[in-house]
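Reviewer comment 2.1 asked that we show a complete input and output for one of the modelled complexes. We chose the adenosine-5'-triphosphate case, as it is the one discussed in the main text.
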Amino acid sequence: MKSITLKAPAKVNYLLDVIRRRPDGYHDLRMVMQRVNLCDEITITLTGAPGISVICGKNGVPDGPGNIAWKAANALLELAGGSQGAEISIAKNIPVAAGLGGGSSDAASVLMGMNELLQLGLPDQRLMEIGVKLGADVPFFIFKTTALAEGIGEALTAMPRMPAAWVLLVNPGVHVSTAWVYNNLKLTNRGELAKLPPFYESVADICSIFANDLESVTIPAFPVIAEIKDTMLRHGAVGAMMSGSGPTVFGLYQDRETAEQARAAITGNSDWFAAVAETL
Ligand code: ATP
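Response of the prediction step:
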């Protein structure tokens, strides 16, 4: 039986501007997105009979057709025709509903893996078109480059090369619903959007673009997010911010040791999720 194992990385947002609410209920955004090497591990095995099984075994993640990985596999099996099926197992290392894009990344990996296993030879552009129907962040994980993401997140442009950085991710485990965040966001008409620099030579250059409009909703409701940011900055982070709609906070560090020391200082007495990763 043909099988493949893939790593599905998490993402953080260096920038998240909400530009306008669209008539279809989505929002037009301007984001800068960066992959980090905190990864889910996905094994896909092609089977001779139709049907898809997804086993994840993580609280809050559906095991069957409700899993976005199931939908990704289904899309490519339908395209392939024939009578094959797939067994998918996901070792979930990325916190769920955390602003780290774990589900979207799983779906992107399944699209790329199934494309190979089924020998469909679809170009990335086509996989991205299929992916955006599953989730707005899916195309970014197929793009595989630090990106400016516009529209609902699907219009991708490669960002200028950015220096590598160490990333401390801390999730305090409070429940933040993405829908609740957008429903409570007051859109401010700020006029011109800040210009993005054309070159990034240091970690400080990256942090100079840090901004996340969604913090205006989450921080008043969950002050712990601001507390984690402050603690990261006091422990050597060059910049710190909430990722996506939260609640994960990330700090950028120039070296691993400082990031590890900050992790110990922040999570010493708590059961919060914390990981030190590298940018990809
Ligand atoms: P985003 O930043 O795109 O909002 P997120 O990181 O906040 O994403 P995810 O971890 O992708 O959120 O999960 C969002 C929801 O999707 C969860 O409530 C979960 O039940 C559902 N889900 C379906 N499939 C998966 C999957 N493979 N991994 C994680 N969540 C999944």
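The mean pLDDT is 95. We note this here for comparison with the apo prediction described in Section 3.2.
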